Amino acid sequence: MANNDAELTYLQQQQRTRHQIEEGIISAFAPEDEGLRNALTSARAAGLPAIQISPIQGKLLQVLAAACNARNILEIGALGGYSGIWLARALPTGGRLITLEINPEHAAIVRNSFEKAGASDRAEVRVGKALDLLPHLESEAPFDLVFIDADKPPYPQYLEWALRLTRPGSIIIADNCIRGGKAFLPPQDEAMAGIVELNRRMASDPRLVSLVLAMDEDYTDGFAIAVVKH
Ligand code: SAH
Ligand code: DHB
Ligand code: MG
């Protein structure tokens, strides 16, 4: 009992430390402005699930966009536009973000949030099933950065399209590639099967150099990041 209490206290302290670290990183490197906060408020008011990326992930998208000199960005899965605003803000003047969203109600919120965040001049949402829209993007390629964050079963197909629509030096990122460790176990459902297969391909494709990073959900989920090699 005494041991259990000590262990519990230790674990709680560790968790507080992790949260403090996260808050410290966010306030020093990734504070949200009015536009981002509005996107969250509008999404919540409309009853959208709060499954957007974290501020740290948003800032990492911006760092990666700068690293590949991104002028043309593709996102798959817009939700309420929160990640889209981070991405749009990484673009130089004349740059462009296309985000694909299957749900027209989500898309309406996205348009509104882009407008309020001052991103509508460079960010556009296209409504439809991503696998139907992706083949029409070939004329608008190459994309310098592709962010995959829609439904999970077709993750491997999204990676295939990302490879087709990018150039050497482009960066491909997929969210939710750890899932509390389930991404490294035999998959129990279609969603996990998609994630496991995307990780396998990202790790083994000779065209890519990649890594999965634990950064979200108390370091139990995060991005898979791949650079298309020269
Ligand atoms: N990237 C967003 C979160 C996306 S949540 C953010 O961080 O702010 C996933 C989104 O993908 C949802 O809005 C969902 O409607 C959309 N989606 C699900 N299946 C899709 C599909 N087949 N094609 C396009 N979008 C899809
Ligand atoms: C879910 C989807 C996401 O993209 C995410 O970041 C978290 C949760 C979901 O479908 O549950
Ligand atoms: Mg996600």
How would you explain this protein's 3D organization?
This protein is an alpha/beta fold. It is 45% helix and 18% strand. It has eight helices and seven strands, in the order αααβαβαβαβαβαββ. The chain has a seven-stranded mixed β-sheet with strand order 3-2-1-4-5-7-6, sandwiched between helices. α7 (155-164) links the parallel β4 and β5 (166-174). α2 (34-45) packs antiparallel against α5 (104-116) and α3 runs parallel beside α4 (82-89). The radius of gyration is 18 Å and the shape is globular. The mean pLDDT is 97. Bound molecules: S-adenosyl-L-homocysteine, 3,4-dihydroxybenzoic acid and magnesium ion.
Which small-molecule species are bound to the chains here?
Answer: S-adenosyl-L-homocysteine, 3,4-dihydroxybenzoic acid, magnesium ion
The strand count comes to: 7
The share of residues in helices is 40-55%
Q: Which structural category fits the helices and strands?
A: alpha/beta
Order of helices and strands: HHHEHEHEHEHEHEE
- Computed over alpha carbons, the radius of gyration is 18 Å
* Alpha carbon gap, first and last residue: 58 Å
Q: What is the overall number of helices?
A: 8
Average pLDDT works out at 97
Largest sheet: 7 strands, mixed
Biggest sheet, spatial arrangement of strands = 3-2-1-4-5-7-6
Residue windows where pLDDT falls under 50 for at least 5 positions: none
Strand content: 15-25%
